[in-house]
Amino acid sequence: MKMRTTTIATSIAILGLSSIAQAELSGNIGVTSNYLWRGVTQTADKAAVQGGIDYANTEGFYIGTWASNVASGEEVDLYAGFSNSTDNVGYDIGVVQYLYPSAENDDFVELYAAVDYAGLSAGMHYTVSSDKKNMAGENNTFIKGDRYYFVATGMPLNADWSVEGTIGYYDFKNDGVAGKDTSYKHLQVGVSKETEAGAMTFALSKADKESGDKDPIVTISWTQYF
Questions:
Q1: Which end of the chain is least crowded, N or C, by CB within 10 Å?
Q2: CATH of the domain at 29
Q3: Rounded CA gap, 190 and 168, in Å?
Q4: How far is CA 164 from CA 6, 8, 51, 69, 120, in A?
Q5: Torsion angle defined by CA atoms of residues 16, 18, 21 and 23, in that order, rounded to the nearest 10 degrees
Q6: Shortest CA distance to 150 belongs to which of 27, 19, 8?
Q7: In the chain, how many domains are there?
Q8: Spatial distance between the Cα atoms of 143 and 107, rounded to a whole number of angstroms
Q9: Does the model's pTM come out above 0.85?
Q10: Which is it for strands 184-195 and 89-99: parallel, antiparallel or unpaired?
Q11: H helix and E strand count, the chain
Q12: What is the pLDDT of residue 3?
């Protein structure tokens, strides 16, 4: 589900939210050279294998799960929500639980909402609860009250190629470091090609130095949907 912030946001912009509501049971599996979440590597710049399963009814309600390896072991996301569209306007609201079975006290929960108009998507994630602690046992980043804002767009170039871009800002309520604000912005642009064997994506991402990933990051990813 971490991928929903950018990948699904740009899919919304390209395909429209109504495509989610028309689905029933679907899934995806993929590999990436570097799992980035909100502009920051989750795998210490290593590759990741990822996949998920979703179910959506015709009214727009959906539920699903998504998993990936991360630097601390593994991440498993559980989410549910509602998406629909009216004329040229689409929307998506829901809740996601981030689980890290191999990392104690890393789990957290977010509410999210996004709206799409004419190929442009905007949304926010809000952390409502968190088990994350710093070494002193106090709340650190990724805690209740954190907010993530994003704007994303995508455009098909032809039947096979598309381009997409995302701008995001992670606003931390409490960074856990006195006198230091680690809130940051990030930008990602990418190009994708659809093939019978899956979708290939080449992306370039850059986050502020406060994120810990100050250098631009290039990723190559493959995803198959079924």
A1: C
A2: 2.40.160.40
A3: 15
A4: 9, 11, 21, 25, 10
A5: -70
A6: 8
A7: 1
A8: 10
A9: yes
A10: unpaired
A11: 2, 14
A12: 46
How many residues are given for the chain? 226
Residues 35, 3 contacting (CB under 8 angstroms): no
Q: How far apart are CA 207 and CA 144, in angstroms?
A: 23
Q: Which long-range contacts (CB under 8 A, 24 or more apart) does 113-119 make?
A: 114/9, 114/12, 115/89, 115/90, 115/91, 116/12, 116/13, 116/16, 116/17, 116/85, 116/89, 116/90, 116/91, 116/92, 117/88, 117/89, 117/90, 118/88, 119/13, 119/14, 119/153, 119/154, 119/155
Q: Using CA atoms, how far apart are residues 72 and 117, in angstroms rounded to an integer?
A: 38
- Residue 11, classed as helix, strand or coil, is helix
Q: Give the integer Cα–Cα distance in Å for 35 and 41.
A: 6
| pLDDT tens sequence for the chain (226 residues) | 454 444 444 444 444 444 444 558 999 999 999 999 999 999 999 999 999 999 999 999 999 999 999 999 999 999 999 999 988 899 999 999 999 999 878 899 999 999 999 889 999 999 999 887 544 445 556 788 999 999 999 999 999 999 999 999 999 876 655 556 789 999 999 999 999 999 999 999 999 998 988 899 999 999 999 9
210 residue type, one letter: E
